[in-house]
Every structure is written in C-alpha cells, then in structure tokens.
Amino acid sequence: MASPAYEKTPVNTVKRLGKERGNYDYKNVHSIVNSSPVVHVSFNPIAADDPFPAVLPMLGVTGSFTSQDADPATSEQDLYIHGYVGSRLMKQSSASGDDQGTPVTVAATLMDGLVLALTPNHHSCNYRSAVVFGYASLVTDEAEKLYALELITNNMIPNLWANCRVPPNKTEMTSTTILRVKISLASAKIRSGGPSEDRHDAKDEALRKRVWTGVVPSWTQWGEPIPAKATLVEEVPEHVESWRALANRDGRVGAYEAAVEKEK
C-alpha cells in the first residue's frame, strides 16, 4: 500500500535525480520541516518599489487544529509559522485581500555530511530537504493561536510549553502573530551514501591512492546548557537534559547511517 503523499505536478516535481532522490510522502516532508531548527519563507512583496523576492528565517511546524491527534506521517497538515506582528510577511498576510492568502514557498534543509570525491565536480553533501508551496493566512481565532504557539514551542524542546509561564498574557498574544500556511504542494529530496565517481577516475589506481574520498558526517550538536544569571533553578531540568542527550545521539546515529547507506 502506497504511503500518503503530495500530488506530483510540474511545480513540485524534483527534476535533477528526481527518481533517485525525490520523495513526496507526508512522512518525509513533514518530518524534515519539523526537524529543522529554522525554515526559510519566501514571498513576493506587494510594494511596487520593491523588485526583490523576500526570504525570512522563521520558526515553523506542521499541525492540524481541526484534527489535533492526526499523525503527521499519514495525514494532511497545515504549516504554522511564528512571527512578530510588525514583520513584512505578517503585515502583508493581514492586509491581503485574497481569500486564499499570501502565496509562499517554505524551504527546510538538514545536512548529514560532506561527501568528498576524487574530483571537485563529484563532491556533494548528504542532506534531507523539503520545499512546501502554499497560502499563508493570519490566525485570528484565539484557541487556534494558542494551539499553534504550544505546538511551535514544544517542537523546540518537548514539554517546553508546560515548563514555562503559560498561557501568554494579553500583551504577548497581541505582539505575536501566527500564520497558517495551507499546503498545496510539497516535495522532499534526500541524498545519502558515499561519493559517485567518474568511471574513468574510478579505474585510476594512482589517483585513488593519492586522493582521499569518503564522507565527513555532520549533525546538529546541542552543547552543555548555560544557566541565565537570574535563574534560581540549580540544575538543568530533566525535560531539557533528556531531550539534549537524545537529540545528540539520534543526530549522530542518523548522520553515520546516511554516510554508509548506499556506499558501494
């Protein structure tokens, strides 16, 4: 049985090495977006004197307010984005007269390693990337806004929301804006394994003896927590320390697995 996936169209179809690396499953797209510490949101400004597309680094996570228990690996999701009320995208989405919302493209990338080959043309990276196309609208319902804020907070560190002063006060709720991106199309692209060499270089024993090839694994490493000067808590809370240890372990394991998965 095929996994639930986004429709392939000319807009979201992966062109280069698409059959080998392209993926459209909800599971891959949503997990890459949710694992990225920062997503980059691009849009076309409405100002007539601004000729450049805009790109903003933001916090985002997938979710479904109407089906909060739905599994993101198998269900349709919206993308919630957190931002300051005065930012260009937030103002533009608020002022948009389009019922669909502001068209946006959201990109997320996780790097798993540098792939070093015999020649510069074959150097590469192991990575997981996702691109989402959709329409961003301002979340005005307070219950949905609180849901999205909790979702985004807990996507940073599990159970972080419950270990803070919550709910936010009126001033905080007013100054914070949430956009809901209704996802229309999306795709993922994943590369793993070792270098792919030119066939002539691969037969050159002298070259192979002279040039080192292989993979340098890469992952996000979360360091030792540094307490704030004002904190009165003597030890790092369990929800932070357990998450840090697990995230560091999983990141390292995943990077090394990506390095050898398709090694020839």
From TrEMBL:
InterPro entries: Pyridox_Oxase-rel (IPR024747), Split_barrel_FMN-bd (IPR012349). Gene3D superfamilies: Electron Transport, Fmn-binding Protein, Chain A. This is 5-nitroimidazole antibiotic resistance protein. It comes from Mytilinidion resinicola.
